[in-house]
Specification:
Layout (H helix, E strand, L loop, with lengths): L4 E6 L4 H10 L5 E7 L8 H4 L12 E2 L11 E6 L6 H14 L3 E6 L9 H8 L12 E2 L13 E3 L3 H14 L7 E8 L14 H4 L4 E2 L7 H13 L4 E8 L6 E8 L6 H11 L6 E3 L15 E8 L2 E8 L3 H15 L17
Parallel strand pairs: 1-2, 1-4, 2-3, 4-5, 5-7, 6-7, 8-10, 12-13
Antiparallel strand pairs: 8-11, 9-10, 11-14, 13-14
Helix pairs in contact: 1-9, 5-7
Bound molecules: NADP nicotinamide-adenine-dinucleotide phosphate (NAP).
The site of NADP nicotinamide-adenine-dinucleotide phosphate has 28 residues, from helix 1 and helix 9.
């Protein structure tokens, strides 16, 4: 594994961009060749992310028009830009690769390539899509659920969606539950990105909790679409997100009604079979704890069944498994590297 795949990181000055760079610092095969930012152009990456001091001392943020003249035969494009901006940036980076005869693989963590067509995207996001002609090249799903040959490019499903998909796919594929699913999830403040807002200000977040967009969050229709495409089954996802008093992590609970005749051992077997070969998804006996996963690419799930009701608890790090780590995991797959490359660091536990 001595090859060095150049990476272009779009929207690299935000929380997910910084986390992606932190993870790439210990990736043996992928190195940042360009980190694109409008607001931090020409600034040293280590000046914006002091935790990366000394990793790539000469690396500076660049403009999308100033990508390197040569990129080699193939490269990795990560987009960690805001939705709405990402599609255009990806389009321009793909155009630059075409000019340089470099074969790119893209993983976009924004919402811009989670839908199959611009109409579906525009119906949920209410803005015009920035690169509709590129959408068909992308698939949106988790590597744990891919059954087809590897896609060309990936629209990463996102952080809440990672939890929802990990919890629901093993139930939906064999049809073990009523397809009306109830999900509640508490998220850390990094989920809202780096731009300060009243709802992300420390006095508001500290020692506080509040739900937002109950039953009206955009991720519900996104996940319904992915489940429908992957299982052929219709599903209704009723989702209530809550802001929690911590910086990183998602703690999720899914409630579902088991179909008549389905018992707890069938449920457990469905998860165990589904994730038997998944290096980052762990079925555990007791409800998982955030601190066992935060800082890592691991997700933990536990199930409980009583009187025909199933509760699945899920813990994951929104910035790692739900964004930057999940994106690197996909990039490893697209470049035929072992899926775990650069991602084996365990959780910090007492962070
Ligand atoms: N935070 C999470 O837990 C999480 C999890 C999963 C997915 N995501 C998705 O990942 C992406 C990044 O999230 P984040 O939390 O890192 O957000 P963030 O901290 O706000 O960073 C987003 C970056 O996008 C760039 N950007 C914003 N508007 C732009 C525009 N109009 N044109 C070009 N660039 C623009 C900004 O960089 P410059 O202004 O410097 O160019 C900014 O640093 C988002 O699409 C988000 O939905 C986030």
């Amino acid at each position: 594994m001595s090859e060095s795949i150049p990476a272009i990181v779009l929207g690299g000055s935000g929380y997910v961009g910084g986390e992606l760079l932190r993870l790439l610092a210990s990736h043996p095969c992928i190195r940042p060749a360009a980190v694109v930012s409008r607001s931090r152009r020409h600034e040293a990456v280590e000046a914006v992310f002091p935790n990366l001091r000394g990793v790539w001392p000469g690396l500076r943020f660049t403009a999308i028009d100033d990508l390197p003249d040569t990129l080699g035969d193939r490269c990795a494009i990560f987009s960690t830009a805001a939705h709405g901006a990402s599609a255009q940036l990806v389009d321009r980076a793909l155009g630059a690769c075409e000019q340089r005869q470099c074969v790119p693989s893209v993983v976009d963590v924004s919402a811009d390539f989670r839908f199959r067509d611009a109409e579906a995207y525009e119906a949920v996001y209410g803005i015009e899509h920035g690169a509709p002609d590129r959408m068909q090249m992308f698939r949106s799903l988790l590597p744990e659920h891919a059954t087809i040959r590897k896609p060309r490019h990936v629209g990463h499903p996102g952080c809440f969606a990672t939890g929802m998909l990990l919890a629901t796919m093993p139930l939906m594929r064999p049809g073990l539950v009523d397809p009306r699913l109830m999900v509640s999830a508490v998220t850390g403040s990094t989920g809202a990105g780096r731009a300060p807002r009243p709802t992300t200000h420390h006095p508001t977040r500290h020692a506080n909790m509040f739900a937002y967009k109950p039953l009206a969050h955009r991720h519900a229709p996104e996940v319904e679409g992915i489940l429908r495409a992957s299982t052929g089954r219709g599903v209704q996802l009723h989702f209530v997100p809550t802001s929690g008093p911590f910086a990183r992590g998602i703690y999720m609970v899914l409630h579902a009604r088991l179909l008549d005749g389905v018992d707890s051992s069938q449920v457990r077997d469905a998860y165990a079979d589904h994730y038997a070969k998944a290096p980052f998804v762990h079925l555990v006996d007791a409800p998982p704890r955030l601190k066992d996963v935060v800082g890592s690419n691991h997700a933990r799930l536990a199930t409980a069944v009583n009187r025909g009701t199933l509760a699945v608890t899920v813990a994951l790090d929104n910035l790692v498994k739900g964004a930057a780590g999940g994106a690197i995991q996909w990039m490893n797959v697209l470049h035929e590297l072992p899926e775990t490359t650069g991602l084996t660091t365990p959780a910090a536990a007492w962070m």
